[in-house]
Structures are given as C-alpha cells and as structure tokens.
Design goal:
single chain, Immunoglobulin-like, 44% strand, 8-stranded mixed sheet, immunoglobulin domain, repeat, 395 residues, binds 2-acetamido-2-deoxy-beta-D-glucopyranose
Length: 395
Amino acid sequence: MVDVCLNFRTSSKMFTITFIILVGISSIFVEAQRPDIVDEILPEVKQKNQIGYLNCTVVNKGSESVVQWSKVETVNGGNPILLSEDDKIVYQGNTGINEDSGLRKYDMQSRINGRRVTYMLVIRYLAEEDAGDYLCTIRIQGVQWPEWPKKIGKLTVQIAPQIQPSINSIYEKDIGSSLQLTCESHGNPYPNITWKREDGQELPMGGFQSRGATLNLTDIQRNDRGNYICVADNNVKPPDSFKVEVIVFFQPSCRPVQSTVGQAQNRRFNAKLECIVAGYPQPSMKWMKETENGKLIEIDDDDKYDITKQFSSQLQNDEFWYTLLVKNVQAKDYTNYHCVGTNKYGDGEITIALFETMECQGSNCPSPGGAGAGTQIQASVFTVLLFGLVSLLVL
Ligand SMILES: *[C@@H]1O[C@H](CO)[C@@H](O)[C@H](O)[C@H]1NC(C)=O
Ligand SMILES: *[C@@H]1O[C@H](CO)[C@@H](O)[C@H](O)[C@H]1NC(C)=O
Ligand SMILES: *[C@@H]1O[C@H](CO)[C@@H](O)[C@H](O)[C@H]1NC(C)=O
C-alpha cells in the first residue's frame, strides 16, 4: 500500500516537471518567433527647424514582418500616413527635397545591435504641423492588423513666442476713462505674458508687472501716460515683445520754479521768471503782466522781454519749461506776472511776483569788490586765444 502511494507520487512529480519543461521550451520557441517592439519610444522635444528623431527598437524581426512608421493625423479622419517600411521611406510629404540643403524631409536610419534593430525616423525642418503622434507598427504576414505590435512616439515642436501684430500701438484717452490693452500671442508651449511699463515705474493698479494677456487701465490719470510693454515668453528663445503708447489728454496746469523773484531797480539788472506748463495736447503758452489797475496785458518778446522755452531732463511727459526775462528792471516792473497755458481742454494759470530788493539778485550779478566774474573769464579766454595765436606763428 505504501509502495503504491510512493510510486504514484513520484510519477506525478515527474509529469509535473516534464510539463513545466515542455511549456518552457514551447514558450521560448514562440518568443523567438514573434517580433515585438521593445522599450518605450522616447518622446522627442525639438524647436522649429531642428531635426527630430524617433527610435523604434524591434526584436525577432524576420523576413515575414515589416516595420512601419506612420504619422497619426488628427485631421482627415485620423487616417495615419505611412512614412516608412523597414529601411525605405515611402512618403516625402508635400515639401520633398529641401532646396537649400538638398536633404529630404524624412529619412530612415536602421541599426542592428544583436537581436535588436532600431529604426530611427529622422524628421527634418521641423514645423508646427510635424508635431503629434507617430506610430511604429510591425506588420506581420498572416496576422490580423489588431494583433500587430504597435507603439506611439510623441514629437513636440517648440515654437518661439510671437505676438499678433494686429493690436493698436497708440491710444489717446481722456482723463478718467478706461482702456483694456490686449496682447494676443502664439507659441508652443503657450507663452506666459506679462505687462510692464517701459520706464520701469509702477503700473497704475500697483505692482511692476501684470501677468496675463490683458491689462485693464481704469480711471486713467495724467501719470498713466507712457509706454507699456507686453512680453511673451515660453523659454524658447527669443521672447517677443510689443510696445503700446498711451497718451492722456488733460487740461493745462502750471507751476512756478520760484513764485517770487527779487531784483534791484534801475541798474541794468535782469529778472528771470520761470514757469512749468503741463498739458496734452501741448498747450500754447503766454505771459501776462498785471497793470496798476489790475488789468492783464499780454507780454510780447521784444526789447524789454525775452520769452524762451527751455529743455530739461527733469521735465516729465507733457511738461514744458518757459522763462520770461525782464530786462533792465525798473520800478514799473514790480508787479505780478501770470503764466497761462491753454489747450482745447481748458486753461491753467499761476502768478509769479517780481519784487524790489536793494542788492542785485541772481547768478549774473557783478561780484562785490569791483572786477566781475565775467571780466575774469573774458581775460582768461583772451590769454588762451593769444597763446594759440603765438603757437601757430611759432610753428
Ligand atoms: C535614437 O537612437 C539614436 C542612435 O541609437 C540616439 O543617438 C538617439 O539619442 C535616440 N533618440 C531618441 C529620442 O531616443
Ligand atoms: C479686464 O476687464 C475685462 C472686462 O471688463 C474683464 O473681463 C477681465 O477679466 C479684466 N482683466 C483683468 C486682468 O482684470
Ligand atoms: C510660466 O510661468 C510659470 C511661473 O513662473 C512657469 O512655471 C512656467 O514654466 C512658465 N511657462 C512657460 C511656457 O514658460
């Protein structure tokens, strides 16, 4: 009884071992027969006009199978375009051979490495439409299409940002109005857009940068005038930028450089009155003098007065610096002078008082002790000239 049992156990063990060996052999045999795609196809990320490479690595490829690369189309009902069969490119696209380089759009390079064969699809002159999925398939004779080994390779074509040039580049707005600036841009990946001021100043809504394609300016004020820049960046060089100029219309306003100016009378001294006028459009400007009876008379540029417009880097946008030189100050000149700026939005006005002093005021006064600074400068200029003349003669 024990013997029988033992025998039975031994034979069942034998059977199991034989079975495992058989299954093992047959599975190796099947493996060896069946071509397959090994490894994932690494996604390829390249910039426009560069070359993309997609590798499909295959094992056990026999003569009865063909490795195909095709491009998966999202348009056209999604029918893939067959690009290659084994080592041969079977499609060259619409572009064909590139005129400049003589190279083709597509190329196939295969490399054998032991049991593995890599079919590298080369895609040149990358354009936006080249981006997408590429399908590697092993077509096996006598096997139905759904059973063919397949893998997808993804190609990303990066595009540097481009801002649509259609947007306005100059806006003229009234005080208190609103304006929405938009910066439409394109690129892959979709760019980050930021708005900032060209002069680096703070934005009207606060902060030095605003993220997003739109910049809302509300209740526009004088100081909102200036250049605004939108920058589109997606880390694909170069970033793109666009400049918008915002002009703000406003009524003139005036401010004196000094609201009172003193000068001594009757000694051929001049008095300089200075006024800064702001406004857009640029205001016309006039100087007025108050007469004894309180009437205002406009001052002309003549023997008595010099009216000039000055330039200064200290001026802000839409500011203009005017001076009135009252020559040879006399008793009748001591009064108020009005600086008046006018544009179609209205007037701005301030007064500057000219008052009497005992001593000469200002930088053009003769220095105490006789010889004025002017005389000294003249003397030294004369010396230099004389020296130059002598050197010339000697040479
Ligand atoms: C494809 O294979 C080639 C050569 O084997 C290699 O140089 C390249 O880096 C591979 N490219 C990708 C995207 O895997
Ligand atoms: C700007 O204003 C528009 C319309 O008023 C609004 O739709 C948009 O969200 C605003 N954008 C920002 C960044 O505030
Ligand atoms: C946009 O900005 C964010 C935050 O700075 C960053 O993480 C992202 O990579 C940027 N996107 C692009 C396309 O550059």
